[in-house]
Fold this sequence. Notes:
The chain is an alpha+beta fold. The chain has 3 helices and 10 strands, in the order βββββββαβααββ. The N terminus is likely disordered.
Amino acid sequence: MAIIRSLSSATLDTPTPTAPNAPRHHLRAVDRDEVIDVAEFLPPGATWLPAPPHTLPTLPGQPPMVGYLVLIPADSPHLVRSAPVAPVLPTEAEPLVRIDTVQRTAQLNGEELDLTYLEFELLAHLVAHPNRVHTRDQLVTTVWGYGHVGDGRTVDVHIARLRRKLGVEHRKAIQTVRRVGYKYTPPTAR
């Protein structure tokens, strides 16, 4: 029996003890062949799509996860808005690698790096997702595209070239995670 979590319609109208008229949501297990109409749980105007499998985490020894993207119109009264975020003021520890995707330039410590198309795409992707571990397959799919025929060795070669161009002082910004892939740890000014 597969365990999938969903909202129980029987408990949606049960008020919580703290908020008298607030809906109460519960999760429950459903059978593999049980069909749940999730549309009734969505606010008006919302749609949902299956999340791409490559965006979902995988856990060793566990069945694959299923995820959904819920799209809610920006003018919907049901949209949960987060508190405004205070602007980040520059500090003495500013990032040394800057990517300009419009002009397709990368700068290290104020000096422009001479990168090929794929080196730029790879560095831009890593910089956009700092401290996140990327598998070689994820990088091939994201940077080279779904139709690319190749293996993780292609990624290794491009990472080596990027490290050389970052120089001895900053080459460790792209770290190898053994048997998994790579992650970018931003170098900062000292």
